[in-house]
Design a protein that fits this description.
The chain has eight helices and 14 strands. By secondary structure, the chain is α/β, with parallel strands linked by helices. A six-stranded mixed sheet has the order 3-2-1-4-9-6. It has a three-stranded mixed sheet with strand order 5-14-10. It is globular. The protein starts with a strand and ends in an 11-residue tail after the last helix.
Length: 324
């Protein structure tokens, strides 16, 4: 399978909501890589054809359920990686710039992530207990929205360990995410045991809206994104994450952020430019007029009225959504 030198890979299985995200990610990638040798792959068990503007996108097709369920699919990246240098990006991300420098920073690492090392605290389980069990001085901590893989013996060893550890997930005292084993912990342990490490998280590669919950600005076509984790006592402050402002080249709209107007506005602009052939400025102006500005106004109105609503009617139970 290892055909090219560099490739971006994403996974979209089961529901078309994931394929729609993968298509938006592909469109953002293609915008910034029109003359690049970096290839884009979607691994999927969805049989429907892609839109006509996806002719440069390569599809790895699997039978329904063949890739597994939940986060376990990402424990097969060593087998799925289609190029000598493969960058996996979660489908709920958008590229806001070229990725050449990202490949350059990761080059030479069998398996890597964006993040530093930790020795204690809680990360889907007690970190110190996990380290002690495996005899580790430290282990990497990261968000699994981005993985880098150079297929070979070392990468295979990391992922073989991770797949074996998945069978012992509950026994190891690791906490599930959405009732599934979280692949991040398994890959982190395996990377540490195999001597693999991440690269420093300086905010320039991957920015995710859990650690940096304020999305001040995003414009995929102009290559602009600005996120921050404000300092306390700001109610938006995310404890345990750096207080900083970042401008990443990959913006990760994890969780329900893909339902917000910021993501959906960019998705609409990308569709009009890539599929309909509209000039970027025209597409942006149209989406601003018919969707983005009305949605932004409604969002602000809801925020302003929410305290009064809660005083009158109380809070509603959060509806849980099956994501897999």
């Amino acid at each position: 399978m290892k055909q090219g030198t560099r490739a971006v890979l994403t996974i979209a299985t089961g529901k078309w909501m994931y394929m729609n995200m993968a298509i938006a990610l592909a469109r953002s990638f293609l915008w910034w890589h029109r003359d690049s040798d970096i290839e884009f792959y979607i691994a999927t068990d969805i049989e429907d054809p892609l839109p006509r503007d996806m002719d440069r996108v390569k599809v790895l097709r699997f039978r329904p359920g063949e890739l597994g369920k939940g986060f376990s699919m990402k424990l097969k990246l060593d087998e799925l990686a289609p190029a000598a240098q493969t960058l996996f990006i979660d489908a709920d991300c958008l590229c806001v710039g070229p990725l050449d420098s990202v490949f350059g920073r990761f080059a030479g690492r069998a398996v890597s992530v964006v993040g530093g090392n930790i020795t204690d605290g809680e990360w889907f389980g007690d970190v110190a207990t996990t380290r002690a069990h495996f005899g580790l001085a430290e282990m990497p901590k990261f968000n699994g929205g981005v993985y880098y893989i150079e297929p070979g013996d070392k990468a295979s060893a990391v992922y073989a360990r991770a797949r074996a550890l998945e069978q012992r997930y509950d026994e190891l005292g690791l906490v599930r995410l959405r009732n599934c084993p979280n692949e991040e912990l398994l890959v982190a342990i395996s990377m540490a045991l195999e001597g693999c490490s991440g690269i420093d998280d300086d905010g320039s590669i991957h920015g995710e809206l859990f650690a940096s919950p304020l999305l001040h600005h995003v414009d995929v076509l102009r290559g602009k994104a600005r996120l921050s984790n404000p300092p306390p006592p700001d109610p938006a402050h995310r404890p345990g994450y750096p207080v900083r402002e970042i401008a990443p080249v990959i913006v990760h709209f994890l969780g329900d952020f893909t339902t917000k107007w910021q993501y959906r506005g960019e998705e609409r602009v990308l569709r009009l430019v890539s599929l309909r052939g509209l000039p970027a400025g025209v597409a942006r102006a149209w989406v601003n007029l018919v969707y983005r500005y009305p949605a932004m106004l409604l969002d602000r109105l809801r925020s302003a009225l929410r305290p009064a609503y809660r005083r009158l009617f109380g809070t509603r139970e959060v509806r849980w959504e099956e994501r897999f």
